[in-house]
Amino acid sequence: MKFIEDIFNKLRPDFEKGGKFEFFYPLFEAKETFLFIPAHRTKSGSHIRDAMDSKRLMSTVIVALMPPLLMGIFNVGYQYLKASGQPVEFIPAMLIGLRYVLPIIIVSYAVGGVWELIFAVTRKHEINEGFLVTGLLFPLTLPPTIPLWQVAVGISFGVVIGKEVFGGTGMNVFNPALVGRAFLFFAYPAQISGDKVWTVTGDKWVDGFSGATPLSVASSHQSDSVIAAVENFGSGAGVSDFSLPNMFIGLIPGSIGETSAAASLLGCVILVATGIGSWTIMLSVILGGLAMTLGLNELAPNNASFLALPFHYHFVTGGFVFGLVYMATDPVSAAATNIGKWIYGFLIGVIAIIIRTMNPAYPEGMMLAILFMNAFAPLIDYLVIQKHIAWRMKRAKA
Fold first, then answer.
1. 50, CA 20 to 30 Å: which among 103, 175, 298, 394?
2. How many CB atoms lie within 10 A of CB 304?
3. Is 70 exceeded by the pLDDT of residue 209?
4. CB-based contacts of 91: which residues, under 8 Å, 6+ apart?
5. Could you tell me which of 137, 151, 64 has the C-alpha nearest to residue 103?
6. Cβ(22)–Cβ(15) under 8 Å?
């Protein structure tokens, strides 16, 4: 790597202030810091010295995203082979999955990276490493059949409206990847919801095959039991059945990175072990979802009602685990106080289950629950701090 470092040192004067390529310094700096440790250091003001800088933090999150990404790639190929009646083998499934997933990721990084460069050059600051995470998170929330032009539109909306209008990385109120996903859902619902967007089978759909997800089956079934409707769907039809093991592993139709609870939990271990992801928020989301589900189970009029679906089914379906591990824990848009994290996460779990069960048109819920609580995270922290100040004042007067 020494010869590459020498090349950057030789080119640096041309990109620094006064150089002939000064206008493109953010692009030069982004490439240099991607390969090497940043040359600049904090010079004044009080600060904490720590081995974890922003580049290492974002790189660790990317590593934690590898399990759902790889499982998502395999699952796309798996669904393709199952739906077309072909034998499922690992290598062919991965190659087919890459054929559909890789272009989505490339478009996300390319278009989003252009927007990052435009704002960095305009504002005369470096390109932040945060986009490395956003550029990968966003594709993982999409179905494999999403048109590439919609990927470009969605990531553009997420980066520009979800982040840059607030001032850039670290100043955004909402998670940029979720903002882009929400925009696509409401702007182009036909390409991101329904029964024919989750499983690719070449140029046409296999006759008689439905790409429904477990949540859509649970919300619109016609049987006497919501559990039986989910578990029996697809059995004997040559497609993946929605058994608990399949839903936990991720061998079901769904968004690229959200189908596998097991893969997301593996990423959870990485984030918690490195201290990057907040276990408090993750646990509180689960507790909130569990509490709300138990309450609705008691109110369910019969076993056929969506309200009767047990929590372990909610946990392994949709983007519940993916959302609580990678989205709810976003350090910028989440609550920052210790007590605030418990409140923030608990309410995400509660609202996600409410949206899933009460709104037949949108059975997922996790995305909107996180965005909703992103808006209230500053208020939660403010109230927690004010409560603490009042308590300290009361003790001081005593």
1. 175
2. 17
3. no
4. none
5. 151
6. yes
